[in-house]
Amino acid sequence: MDKLKLNILNLLKEDARHSAELLATMLGEDRAAVETAIAELEADKVIVKYATVVNWGKVDDDKVTALIEVQITPERGRGFDAIAERIYLYPEVKSVYLMSGAYDLLVEIEGTTLKEVASFVSSKLSSIDRVLSTKTHFILKKYKQDGVIFEDHEDDQRLLISP
Prior knowledge:
Number of domains: 2
CATH class of the largest domain: Alpha Beta
Number of helices: 5
Shape: extended
Order of helices and strands: HHHEHEEHEEE
Radius of gyration: 21 Å
Strand content: 15-25%
Helix content: 25-40%
CATH superfamily of the largest domain: Lrp/AsnC effector binding domain/regulation of amino acid metabolism (RAM) domain
Structural class: alpha+beta
CATH architecture of the largest domain: 2-Layer Sandwich
């Protein structure tokens, strides 16, 4: 990938609202070249979505988010892909990652209640062939997401120690 496209991606990751004109100015490039590069990135599915990071803790919203560790037996000929696909097609599932270590997949889901999330795990996820075990972790509070700190933090309050 050329340097222009990488620079565009980095700037859009910081703020997806940047216009092609602003990106061109920031990069010292021609606007048409930036527009062409963005169109190619979208066509190649490098840019798949423009999104907003929301601090849901500041919204009167009762979402329950859980991270589920899933151990599975890979399928012959398709490995983990077939099972991951079966899982990510559920509308409750927000993300699925293939992991190294103690478990195979990390699944992020959202529900409206703890009971709804537990029901998803027990009735849908655990019942999939080749799923050996699950371990559910509920997110209690988000401090930082996608590089954005949600907390209003004060200056460092530690006492200075001098010799």
